[in-house]
Design brief:
Length: about 260
């Protein structure tokens, strides 16, 4: 219904379908498998032991799911946020997650740092709706889509997980609203600009090196994967803001080949 949060993991493309309450995985031949039943599933990541970590949209929770699809832990973040969204988990098991608060009919965005026990601390504030999250190949720079800011921000990370002051990685202009993103081995960022119907590859400073347009629907999120890391998966959802709230949506995943492979993870 509404694909989101694509990640290449363990030889398969994984993605969430929040309205359907499912996390899927799909192989390169298109074999689709329900990996977990998680209401409002959104962002995805993994702990070192293979535990799937799932954040939820329109609800502030993070769930741990084992290899059989069973939820083993649910962490309630409602004291900090109205909703979570995207999620990225580092090799040491800490996760960065979008936190949304509703204030005067507007969303105020923060980024939380979550340890494997579910303890959360705020590491960035005052964002205009943070969205897609990913690390540059150096492993110490977090790139964040700021949807309502029409730009990508870069944060340096400290050994304890704290984030430094943001810098502007790329200003995409007022007509573009970045959503999900992924990062390649050269530090280029592929990002979906959902309502302008395009997927862009941008480099530090804002130069657009590649642009893929879609015929219709929202360009929600990309992911790099495949056996050589050079397959770019494009999550596209046909809906509207009003329709999505009513559960009226249809999603699809397209693919193309690119020259620069995925960054090591």
């Amino acid at each position: 219904m509404y694909g989101e949060g694509p990640r290449w993991h363990d030889g398969r493309l994984w993605f969430s379908d929040g309205p359907a309450g499912r996390v899927y995985s799909v192989g390169e031949t298109g074999d689709l498998t329900v990996a977990a039943e998680v209401p409002r599933a959104s962002g995805l990541g993994w702990l070192a032991d293979g535990t799937l970590v799932v954040s939820t949209l329109f609800e502030a929770t993070i769930q741990h799911v084992d290899g059989q699809g069973n939820t083993t832990a649910t962490f309630d973040l409602s004291g900090l946020a109205w909703s979570t969204n995207d999620l990225v988990v580092t090799p040491d098991g800490r996760g960065y997650v979008d936190l949304y608060k509703q204030t005067n009919n507007a969303l105020v965005g923060e980024i939380g740092l979550v340890d494997p026990t579910g303890t959360v601390r705020i590491v960035a504030t005052g964002l205009a709706v943070p969205n897609g999250l990913g690390f540059l190949p150096d492993g110490s720079t977090l790139v964040v889509s700021e949807t309502n800011g029409s730009r990508l921000l870069a944060f340096s990370t400290e050994p304890d997980g704290s984030l430094g002051a943001p810098t502007v990685f790329a200003d995409l202009g007022p007509g573009r609203h970045p959503d999900g993103l992924c990062i390649d081995a050269e530090g280029g960022v592929w990002v979906g600009c959902y309502d302008s119907g395009e997927f862009l590859r941008v480099v530090a400073g804002g130069t657009v090196t590649d642009r893929i347009t879609i015929d219709g629907g929202w360009a929600v999120a990309p992911a790099l994967g495949g056996a050589d890391g050079r397959t770019l998966y494009l999550v596209v959802d046909d809906t509207t803001h009003e329709g999505l709230m009513r559960g009226e949506s249809a999603g699809r995943i397209m693919q193309t080949r690119v020259d620069v492979p995925a960054a090591p993870t």
